[in-house]
Write a structure and sequence with these properties.
The complex is a heterodimer. By secondary structure, chain A is an alpha+beta fold. Chain A contains nine helices and eight strands. In chain A, helix 7 packs antiparallel against helix 9 (306-335). The chains are: A alpha+beta, B mainly alpha. Chains A and B meet through helix 1, helix 3, helix 4, helix 8 and helix 9 of A and helix 2, helix 10, helix 11, helix 12 and helix 15 of B.
Chain lengths: 340, 403
Amino acid sequence: MAPVPPAKPTPSSLPAPKPPWWRDRRVVPWVVQAVVGLLVLLLIAFLLGNLIRNLTAAGLLLSWRWLQQPAGFDISESVIPFNAQLPYWRALAAGLVNTIRAVLVGLVGATLMGCLVGMASFSHNGLLRRLARVYVEVVRNIPLLLQLVFWYFVVFLTLPNGVAAIQLPGVVLAKSGLYIAGLGEGLRWMGPTLVNGVWQAPVRLSVEFGALLTGLIVYSGAFIAEVVRGGIAAVPKGQWEAASSLGLSWFATLRRIVLPQSLRVIVPGLNTQYISLAKNSSLAVAVGYTDLYSVAETTLNQTGRAVEVILVLLAAYLTLDLLISALMNGLNHLVQIRER
Amino acid sequence: MKRLLRRLRAELFATRTDAVLSVVLISLISLAAFGVLRWAFTQAQWAVIRVNSTLFAVGRYPVEQQWRVWLLTALLVAASGATWGLLRAHPRPDRTGVLWPRNDRIAATLLVVLGLWRPWAMGLTVSIQARWWGLVALLLLVRWLAGRFGRRFGPTGLRLVALMWPVLYLVGMVLISGGLGLVTVSPSEWGGLMLTLLASSFAILLCFPIGVLLALGRRSDLPLLRWGSVLYIEFIRGAPLITLLFLGQNILGFLLPGGLAPERVWRAAWVLTFFAAAYLAEAVRSGLAAVPQGQLEAARSLGLSHPKALQHVVLPQALRVALPAMVGQFISLLQDTTLLSLIGLLELLGTARTVMANPAFLGRNGEVYLTLAVLFWGCCAALGLGSRALERRLDPHAVPTAT
């Protein structure tokens, strides 16, 4: 630390001399802000000027009329009806719906996975505890994209078809898709059945969707498990001991005593993880699932409308994030301790 | 033996439920392990890795220029050895100065085994095997020298280490890209692990100052700086990285005057940098929040100017608190470089995709992805370990213990 120069002795009867303006505490902040603001404005003006000049030269000035033109490409699994004759905006909407579908199912799955693993790391069983640690340490240190392509190319695309498909109770995993039992025609419960070598079931998911979901759930599950673990660890140990001395079992203690108290630590952490799951769903393009990003990329390649497409993408993801944040903030409000 | 049994019983078979659970888990784990091992030794064809090892390491870097990469690797190895040795010569406060603690002996053995066995097992040519052996020998030699004689230089030694790495980084950039009398190798010819490490180290180095400035801006009293930083951070954090990379590839050309837009690799590296800066800013902000307000006030009342007080008093404490979160960001940045493959750059994953597009290696996904996973896991785990060691070294409350 630099030695502090001794203050000059000033006669206390005289008022302190007015400092020059460049050392005046009331002026300097405004000068700094004005300079920074001016620089930022200049930068923005420079970039925008270039943008407009270059776009005009390329004949691509901002316009939204192309949204009405027929898309000309098909979307393999769209929840809302779609075909190649429908306009671009319908394609983007179908992509957005697909993204939301993946995010919703992913959120539920990852939360379940994370809670189970987070709870397992407090088990009495040493093996289970270590297994939970190993899962978290392995999954967190491998890129999500790598995990996604692994699930898709190594696991889901090598599934057998027809009779050889993996049959679990109510679920059949085949290369042609995932077949899940559900309410079929006439509201009757129907399991997957093999008709002429082709599986049929009330619910059919594509392998692309399956791979994306598995990847997202396994990856986000590890992060959520850490959040849950932190939340449970934040509950004082005395709570565990008090509950078990009252005769509650391990699971009952966790469910009735510890988890409710840890929620106020867990929920803010979950918010971050949910938002990153929503953003990570854009990696679906690597496994061939047509989400919003994938549709946007195709649209850009066909129309060359880079700026508009990017604006749509950014607006859609920002809205999704804000929506999740708002919901989680509401939830956070509910679980906070209310003191009388 | 008896103690082991007793411990096993307490950990795995304490109650009936526990016992059932343990038996189920043990059988599941052994089944999985057996399946993986059987696949790895009987069905997997590791030729895809052996044949393409150069591609995975450096991509399409010209063969006659690859000596530069070897030279850089040797320099890096020597620098790592020197750093390792010097750190042991100046032990951290909670340790007594043992030159070869147990962890180091394990690490050294592991390195020797890996360095001797791996190149041989991969069936590399003799000259390349010899190079790897030479590198391991160099590492251990420099480590020994620095550990043995490092204390003679006093604390200057450690300061030299801090200076050595940035210099080495610049030297490495020149070695890889050319210039100063070396043939230029265009970034489009970089690839594989080299590109992954280059892009991530570039972004890690540059996002740090930007992130710190943004964090300070976000906590500043000046409304314009504060709102500007908030806007930037929240905008970047709201968008998926892939859309930002996409923006960099497709729109940066429009934003800059014709011909000024950098090469595709550099564009991606800059996007990574600005992306990581926003996340780093949040990590640093949490560190700043942990420093009591009184620290700044005390420094100011001692006569330090505001920037000086931040630089000498507040930031050192804040960064120490923020270190784990920052390294977490660096780890996810390293992982995020895989996204470059989605915009057509040939980093590790991109190289893997081109390799598997080759009909000779069709369907060898498992082998390739498993190798990449091990590589990434190793790099990320090493970063995490390093961060924990650094944390303990910087801990002001560490008590010397006899270890």
